[in-house]
Amino acid sequence: MATPAQLGLQNATSPIMEELIAFHDHALMIIFLISSLVLYIISLMLTTKLTHTSTMNAQEIEMIWTILPAIILIMIALPSLRILYMTDEFNKPYLTLKAIGHQWYWSYEYSDYEDLAFDSYITPTYFLEPGEFRLLEVDNRTTLPMEADIRMLITSQDVLHSWAVPSLGVKTDAIPGRLNQTMLASMRPGLFYGQCSEICGSNHSFMPIVLEFIYFQDFEVWASYLYIVSL
């Protein structure tokens, strides 16, 4: 999760987020080089005597400043398109999880398990345990298996919401009457926090998301326990 005075992105826990961070660094380096070149040219114009002020035709330099930006744009576009297609690639999922946005909480349904569904509300400040995070904790965490492709089906019951978990590189709009789909996977166990990222009303900032990734065998035990309890 994010930390105070953090300048970069959150640590990646999914392959997609690792690719996004690498692309961010790639684009940032190109921007840095362009900015340095422009600053150098401006400093030269301010500190040196101008010559050739009557030049009317310079085909070489015009070709350079036309072709070079096109090459730079291609260098940015190709990795971007690669990641875009990766985010839309759906392998055979191990699990399907449906997230439904409400004002102002989330509901989750495990489509592969019978009657396994629950609501996830924010934990009030006076109920927080030591070490828990204000405005980020929920009463029912969403438990998922690690190292597995998980298909997310995201929709809304009332207004526009957005289901976003930065460390997983996931941000998908929840739209009433429409079912959006995305894939996620975590390469390590742990707790990962997110929030609704679409202004959805007065309590928009009180819709946290908490994903708890655990090992396969522990997930099956957890799912079996919830099923027995619901009988």
UniProtKB/TrEMBL annotation:
The gene is CO2. NCBIfam families: CoxB. GO terms for biological process: ATP synthesis coupled electron transport. Binds a copper A center. Residues 92-225 form the Cytochrome oxidase subunit II copper A binding domain. It holds the Pfam family COX2. Component of the cytochrome c oxidase, the last enzyme in the mitochondrial electron transport chain which drives oxidative phosphorylation. The respiratory chain contains 3 multisubunit complexes succinate dehydrogenase (complex II, CII), ubiquinol-cytochrome c oxidoreductase (cytochrome b-c1 complex, complex III, CIII) and cytochrome c oxidase (complex IV, CIV), that cooperate to transfer electrons derived from NADH and succinate to molecular oxygen, creating an electrochemical gradient over the inner membrane that drives transmembrane transport and the ATP synthase. Residues 1-91 form the Cytochrome oxidase subunit II transmembrane region profile domain. The chain crosses the membrane at residues 27-46, 66-85. The lineage of its organism: Eukaryota, Metazoa, Chordata, Craniata, Vertebrata. This is Cytochrome c oxidase subunit 2. One of its GO terms (molecular function) is oxidoreductase activity. Gene3D superfamilies: 1.10.287.90, Cupredoxins - blue copper proteins. GO terms for cellular component: mitochondrial inner membrane. Keywords: Copper, Electron transport, Magnesium, Membrane, Metal-binding, Mitochondrion, Mitochondrion inner membrane, Respiratory chain, Translocase, Transmembrane, Transmembrane helix, Transport. Belongs to the cytochrome c oxidase subunit 2 family. It is a multi-pass membrane protein. It is found in: Mitochondrion inner membrane. Its main location: mitochondrion. InterPro entries: CcO_II, CcO_II-like_C, CcO_II_C, Copper_CuA, Cupredoxin, Cyt_c_oxidase_su2, Cyt_c_oxidase_su2_TM_dom, Cyt_c_oxidase_su2_TM_sf. Its cofactor is Cu cation. It catalyses: 4 Fe(II)-[cytochrome c] + O2 + 8 H(+)(in) = 4 Fe(III)-[cytochrome c] + 2 H2O + 4 H(+)(out).
